[in-house]
Amino acid sequence: MQSLWIETAKKPKFNNLNGDINTDILIVGGGLTGILCAYMLQKAGVDYTLIEAKEICSGITKNTTAKITAQHGLIYNKTIKKYGVDTAKLYYKANSNAIQHYKNLCDELNCNFETKDAYIYSTNDVTKIISELNAYKKINVKAEFVNKTLLPFSVLGALKLTNQGQIHPLDFLYKLSKNLNIKENTKLINMTPNYAETNGGKIKFKKAIIATHFPILNKHGSYFLKMYQHRSYVIALKNAQDTRGMYVDHDLKGLSFRNYGDLLLIGGGSHRTGRSGGAWAELEAFAKRHYPNAEIMYKWATQDCMTLDDIAYIGNYSKNTPNLFVATGYNKWGFTTAMVAAEILCDLVQEKSNSYASVFSPSRSILHPQLAINGLESFLNIITPTTPRCPHLGCALKYNKYEHTWDCPCHGSRFTKDGKLIDGPATDDKPMHN
Ligand code: FES
Questions:
Q1: pLDDT digits 0-9 by tens, 186-230
Q2: CATH 3.50.50.60 given to domain 4-64+171-225+309-360
Q3: Quick check: pTM over 0.85?
Q4: 413 Cβ inside 6 Å of ligand 1
Q5: CA distances from residue 430 to 135, 163, 311, 401 in whole angstroms, order as listed
Q6: Closest atom of ligand 1 relative to the 382 alpha carbon
Q7: 410 in contact with ligand 1, CB cutoff 6 A
Q8: Which fold has domain 370-423?
Q9: How many angstroms is it from 116 CA to the middle of ligand 1?
């Protein structure tokens, strides 16, 4: 169940940390965000070190579908309602700049950036698509309403945004990371304001960026209340169809589509991590129905951190930690948002202002019913009397019979059958006695 990307790109190797060091900026986490931050800091001539507990891109990054777009579901209508037109304009600008940044880097690195149109479609509720179109008009973005697409089923309507893109994520990241100061197999064990203790030595730093998908430091920021994780599934089909675009259903439970070479990637089956879901069954049934001659070449799963207001948390880890920074909560739009995050964080750690920082500030005040739901979910799972417990904050783990893993419904940590850590925010294996 490896992702297509892993099997079609060659990873560079990096040494582990061996002894104590000093660095100006410590980056924790060698996924997409951490690598982009490292690249930009290196380009700016800033001293930095990136540490990764395992190997680079071995977490969620390898499972992305790498759609690069400023069209993030129905974000603009929601953002205008919640924060106003100016904030929505900034959100769009930050993301369209990110697309251009990817294009430029792909040119430099000789990676294939495929320009594609992005579509958000609906099969049952066109009013939301029309409201989103109106939101685009309010922020002066040109988009087109269409009711015909190349999808193998009819849609009630879709919103088309041109000049977006897609890439092979690991080909890009492996090339980008080649000459960066990265220490693999270097696990953070403890962190104080200016010191990090790792399994390879102590690191004295001035500022740190936590880029671990779900933030791993619980003491600040209350991310365990402000986020939960969603799991979803992908299949890659041969002999299917070229849809000539990137498509996402407006409903979180719907399907997404993009092509890579002669493969069609279909994503879907989304559910809160730790709750039961049908895994790949829905996608396989869809493939059988619409592409009876197709063959499944790859299948994999991924998970996403979901925030309270659908906007990522990028900036100071908390109000009380001026030298600690974070990027998380990409709400299924990880590829574009990671670039936005790297641009903002590289400015902030150099004490430069950034026009987009206020939009994504983790300290923005958000009152949302999901906050109470997240708190209740954790409470109920903490008091659930069952044996296997999560080493993060002690919630009851659920066995995932499709993937043979123990999954945590509270914040989405996952473990193998034998208790080895797969996904955080937990940082340790599940103790074998529970
Ligand atoms: Fe937080 Fe399990 S991930 S308690």
A1: 999 999 999 999 999 999 999 999 999 999 998 899 999 899 999
A2: yes
A3: yes
A4: yes
A5: 46, 45, 31, 18
A6: 4
A7: yes
A8: Rieske Iron-sulfur Protein (2.102.10)
A9: 38
